[in-house]
């Protein structure tokens, strides 16, 4: 009778796993908080489960949504900083240096072609640099106060992950075959960041509903317009 079970398709295995994770998420409310269960709420559960074991203990062993979100935001910010530094240095080495500046540092230089002729930054590098800048902007929220950021971040991440836009070129790994080794590394770093953001977005609705209901003044989460207006007020 169990003869056909060995032919189980991967899809038929995903569903029980999903239930398991959802059950774990519900169980979390009663004591043992399990942030990994949030992976079932991401747009790419398989990537989330792959990324989860790489998270630092501070994130992976968080005790509640607030701690998880706070640590996750710090970790994401750090990873984005790493990636933007890499992109910046790659752009610096692909952009031709100013001959006047070179002459200042290397007086013996005689206008040698080898120093000035560099390949311009490729499409993949430029796209990754731009996308990394965009996610950095989302997390820093125009330098809004830290405690005012979560609802704004939630809004912008929702657009990113559920807004129906195609994912950025850098997310696909710039897979048109023209990217260099360095670009491929940068794209890999970005894919990782993308999964982190997806996971961070997964915890935000619960985190925000909790903070709203436990707020002293029992206010609802401010609407985007109110938040934006408040943040631009002097
Ligand atoms: C790379 O991204 C940064 C941050 O968004 C931006 O200021 C810079 O102009 C970008 N560089 C290029 C060459 O596009
Ligand atoms: C995030 O959302 C706020 C409010 O909707 C908006 O004003 C802001 O421009 C967005 N930031 C980014 C980086 O998309």
Write up what this structure looks like:
By secondary structure, this protein is mainly alpha-helical. It has a domain at 45-107 and 121-215: Butyryl-CoA Dehydrogenase, subunit A, domain 3 (Up-down Bundle), CATH 1.20.140. Helix content is 62%, strand content 0%. The chain contains 10 helices and no strands. The longest helix has 34 residues, at 181-214. The chain is elongated and about 70 Å long. Bound molecules: 2-acetamido-2-deoxy-beta-D-glucopyranose (NAG) (2 copies). One 2-acetamido-2-deoxy-beta-D-glucopyranose binds at residues 91, 121, 126, 129, 133.
Task: Identify the CATH architecture of the domain at 45-107 and 121-215.
Answer: Up-down Bundle
Distance between the termini: 72 Å
Largest sheet: none
Alpha-beta content class: mainly alpha
CATH first level of the domain at 45-107 and 121-215:
Mainly Alpha
List all distinct small molecules, including ions and cofactors, that are bound in this structure: 2-acetamido-2-deoxy-beta-D-glucopyranose
Q: How many alpha or pi helices?
A: 10
Strand content: under 5%
Question: What overall geometry do the principal axes of the alpha carbons give?
Answer: elongated
Order of helices and strands: HHHHHHHHHH
Q: Nearest-angstrom radius of gyration?
A: 23 Å
What integer is the average pLDDT?
80
Low-confidence stretches: 1-8, 216-223, 226-234
Query: And the CATH topology of the domain at 45-107 and 121-215?
Result: Butyryl-CoA Dehydrogenase, subunit A, domain 3
Helix content: 55-70%
Total strand segments? 0
Keywords: Signal
Organism: Oryza meridionalis
Signal peptide: 1-31
Protein name: Pectinesterase inhibitor domain-containing protein
């Amino acid at each position: 009778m169990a003869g056909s079970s060995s032919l189980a398709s991967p899809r038929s295995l995903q569903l029980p796993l999903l239930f398991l994770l959802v059950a774990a998420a519900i169980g979390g409310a009663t004591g043992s908080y399990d942030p990994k269960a949030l992976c079932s709420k991401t747009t790419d559960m398989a990537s989330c489960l792959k990324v989860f074991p790489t998270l630092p203990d501070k994130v992976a062993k968080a005790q509640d949504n607030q701690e998880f979100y706070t640590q996750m935001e710090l970790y994401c910010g750090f990873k984005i900083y790493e990636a933007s530094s890499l992109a910046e240095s790659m752009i610096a080495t692909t952009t031709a240096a100013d001959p006047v500046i070179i002459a200042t540092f290397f007086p013996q230089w005689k206008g040698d072609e080898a120093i000035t002729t560099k390949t311009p930054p490729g499409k993949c590098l430029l796209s990754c640099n731009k996308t990394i800048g965009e996610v950095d902007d989302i997390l820093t929220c125009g330098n809004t106060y830290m405690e005012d950021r979560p609802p704004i971040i939630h809004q912008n991440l929702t657009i990113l992950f559920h807004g129906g836009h195609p994912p950025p070129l850098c997310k696909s790994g710039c897979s048109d075959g023209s990217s260099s080794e360095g670009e491929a590394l940068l794209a890999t770093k970005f894919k990782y960041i993308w999964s982190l953001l997806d996971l961070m977005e997964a915890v935000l609705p619960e985190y925000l509903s909790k903070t709203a209901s436990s707020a002293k003044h029992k206010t609802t989460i401010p609407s985007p317009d109110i938040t934006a207006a408040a943040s631009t007020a002097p």
